[in-house]
Amino acid sequence: MAGSSTAERVFRFDLADPLAYLEGERLRTEEPAVEWVPVLAPPAPRCAEEVAALREDVERRAAEMGLQRVRWPDPFPFDSERAMLAATYAKQIGRAVAFSLAAFRQAYAAGRPLDADDNILIAAAACEMHPRAVLKALDTRSVRAALEEASAA
Q: What is the DSSP string of 113-125?
């Protein structure tokens, strides 16, 4: 938002995390300012039982929130590095929330893994980010440095 003050709260997220998807959907309707900060979280090693329990929990919570039925991307979990670079670029141009919600929905409502540039670009198009600009940003040092700095914080 132009002219807005620094956000009172910070939401750090990785697009590969379905729990962050649920939190993002919850935050989108809140009044207080929340700064969305993309971070690359290391994947948590999970056994098959933990993955099954996570899926069940996310599906239950999504239904309680009135969200679309969860469709799991294949593979799950997916490598989110390129998607997180795109989210970092979106933050730099003032579209962090719009892009991130679109990307979360691509992953968990449409079942499209965000390790494919085409799926990242679908999310980018949903918030009017030019595909060539997004693809170029994915390979710039400044975007990578911003993601690394946010992830280290």
A: -TTSHHHHHHHHH
